[in-house]
Amino acid sequence: MTDLAPYAAWDDLSSSAREDLTARVVVVGAESTGKTTLTQDLVKHYRARGGIWKNTLWVSEFGRDYTVRKIAELGISFDDDAEFRSADWTSKDFAVIALEQQRLENAAASAGSPVLFCDTDALATQIWERRYLGNESTAARDALPTLPPRALYLLTDHRDVMFTQDGIRDGEQFRPTMTQWFVDELRLHGERGQFVRGNRAQRLAECVTLIDEVLAERAAQL
After folding, report:
1. Is CATH 3.30.70.980 what the domain over 13-221 is classified as, yes or no?
2. Most CB atoms closer than 10 Å: which of 71, 77, 92, 116?
3. What is the pLDDT of residues 89-114, one digit of tens each?
């Protein structure tokens, strides 16, 4: 394992310093590609290291909770057609989701270990706004034109995970397009990213290696 000894004094830092220095690792990808599973596996792995790492946190996908609440408010069954549900989205919805996702991320960064795992982020919200409302709708981007620096993006490959409908997902046919949109957007912004492929164990092992390399590089900032 990479030597992460420089982080031993992490708990002595102020919350604002930790918010600035935390390595934000964001897991993104199309629907039903294992994002949440990977995020939770990474959290479990780092917490098991003990010490400062036992307080490793993760930020769940606020947009999912927002979607479930929105559906409930409309009185629509989870068995109804996804296109019908998605037709009610407005630009304002995506601005609200992006702002709250970022607020939750910042709060967690100030309170956890040196690494924070994010199951999506505001950049992903911008991509989903494009999916539902088209290129002309930019409310999420306008609400958050600049995001805090990300240490690493992990993009889950849709080809390795069987699509499972949970009642609110768009549909399997959209996954290849969404995957490419994430690739294009990360390249456009010059973000450090990695395509994550393989089975569950392979994905975890590959990501831990990458994240430890990132943490070792960032240790010099402490």
Report:
1. no
2. 116
3. 899 999 999 999 999 999 999 999 99
